[in-house]
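Renewal narrative, Specific Aim 1. Our central claim is that a sequence can be written position by position from structural information alone. The example that follows is taken directly from our test logs and has not been curated for this report. It begins with the structure tokens describing the chain, in the order in which they were read.
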């Protein structure tokens, strides 16, 4: 069982996650955005020590809290290399939405294929799932035999990520979901970047973009 704390803030209502195992005080922060103050406060009151900032992708709503998170925890930020151009263009991304957004500190580490990160009792793998953005990943987080997925904007409860932003591609997104996410068992929890959590089985059966009936 993971310990998972989430928060979201307007205008994007993007889920930021603070994730820890059951026994240690080690935690990771996933996709800190405008809700980052809530997650930092939660880490303090749960006495969790954040050891890494893990990004599922580099759209602005998922990264605007990186500077504050780094100031609070002084840890490395991880991203897939293929989203680094987007990451560096966060101010321009803001302009597309009519928002003034601050540049964020450079990414420290790029995920490598097949690499496993260990944080406290957690084992984490970043699986490339391009389609919503070129360097999108889904994070597989394991603790004591339990596996949960943090799927960013690749998959939502009853929907899928948009593919009309720069670098997005619909066919690629569907292939990522079917080959990477649907390889996990039905009871695997999936925590999206927006909206409620779901399971792989729920989406395999009922997601109108993915269910066999819609093919
Ligand atoms: Zn996105
Ligand atoms: Zn998003």
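The sequence written for that structure reads:
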């Amino acid at each position: 069982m993971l310990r998972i704390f989430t928060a979201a803030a307007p205008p994007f209502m993007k889920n930021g996650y603070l994730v820890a195992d059951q026994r240690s005080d080690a935690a990771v922060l996933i996709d800190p955005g405008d809700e980052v103050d809530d997650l930092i406060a939660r880490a303090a009151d749960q006495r969790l020590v954040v050891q890494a900032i893990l990004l599922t992708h580099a759209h602005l709503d998922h990264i605007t809290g990186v500077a504050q998170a780094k100031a609070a925890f002084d840890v490395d930020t991880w991203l897939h290399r293929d989203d680094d151009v987007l990451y560096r263009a966060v101010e321009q991304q803001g302009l597309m939405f009519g928002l003034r957004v601050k540049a964020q500190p450079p990414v420290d580490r790029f995920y490598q294929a097949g690499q496993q990160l260990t944080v406290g009792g957690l084992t984490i793998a970043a699986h490339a799932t391009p389609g919503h953005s070129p360097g999108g990943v889904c994070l597989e987080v394991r603790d004591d035999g339990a596996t949960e997925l943090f799927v960013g904007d690749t998959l939502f409860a009853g929907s899928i990520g948009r593919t009309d932003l720069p670098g997005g591609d619909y066919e690629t997104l569907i292939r990522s979901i079917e080959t990477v996410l649907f390889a996990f068992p039905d009871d695997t929890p999936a925590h999206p970047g927006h909206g409620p959590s779901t399971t792989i089985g729920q989406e395999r059966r009922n997601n109108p973009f993915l269910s066999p009936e819609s093919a």
